[in-house]
Amino acid sequence: MPSPTLRIWSEHLPLSELASPPLLRLLARYRIHPIAALRPDADLHLAATYIRRARALDLQPGIWPLLSPEQGYWPNTTTLPLFAPYIRNLIQELLAREAVPALAAIDLEPPLDALKRLHERVLRPFVPAPPPRHAPHLRPTVDLPTARTLLDELIADLHRLTIPTLGITLPTAAHDLRDGHNLWQRIARTPWMHIDWQLAGIMTYGSMLSGYSRGLLSPADARYIHWRLLRHLHTHFGPRAHASIGLTGTGVLGDEPAYSSPTELALDLGATLHAGVHDVAIFCLEGILNDAHPERWFSALTRATPAPPSPSLRTRSLQTLAAATRSILLTTLPR
Prior knowledge:
By secondary structure, the chain is an alpha/beta fold. It contains 14 helices and 8 strands. β2, α3 (44-56) and β3 form a beta-alpha-beta unit.
């Protein structure tokens, strides 16, 4: 069995800290490759320094291009007309500074404002939604085939520059792999399934699935649900399959449930490896660094071994419900 490639997302950690030699040496000690969020206001001198220093330690420094929150944050059918030229310009700026990223991560999710509305209405129904702080920005929107073309062209350009790509999206997209219908990708407005990624992955955040279920699902239930999705992913993509696991800290929504110790995270990694997925990223670096002893997280991850999770009555019931829901949506939603 091949040794896993371990990566770690860094969304909110300042680039000055990520580029610091002590932190990069810590990651190099455990062979954990960082992926740095780069927004339009990022200091590209620091970004280039991070890439060059990480490469000097034989790490594979990745970049995670993001738009501003007002622009929609993630690439999707609404934001790709802005995102594609942004990442091309970003890459050229980095190349001009002699900093070639070892990976470009394309994180396909619905527009941030839409996800926040869902979060307030569904995931936090008893908390009054705060008033908007600014008027929504009008953005160009394209249909799914056009968005796919924009992505195809962007990914081809990155590959011509010998920059590997990771296309990652919501876990529900793995259901689309089984029957070839891009149902959940259409709903989320995120073309992903037919792009020529060098790594193709889904987010399997056990702490979020169990935490947002308000006790309906345990971390073990979430682990089994994600394990089944990762098996579909591995069947379809083989060694190109990727999984992101966590959470160890909050993301852009600000209140995502996170693990408080490495135990559950290491179990998630064991289930991921058992599903056949050996390229894995942890979300997130800043969450682990908030621990007084971050080494215990890294050590637990490097000791994880493949292990299958067990189903429960709840997960079997949810499988039946999910299959029925998909059948209904496939017959009622327009193609």
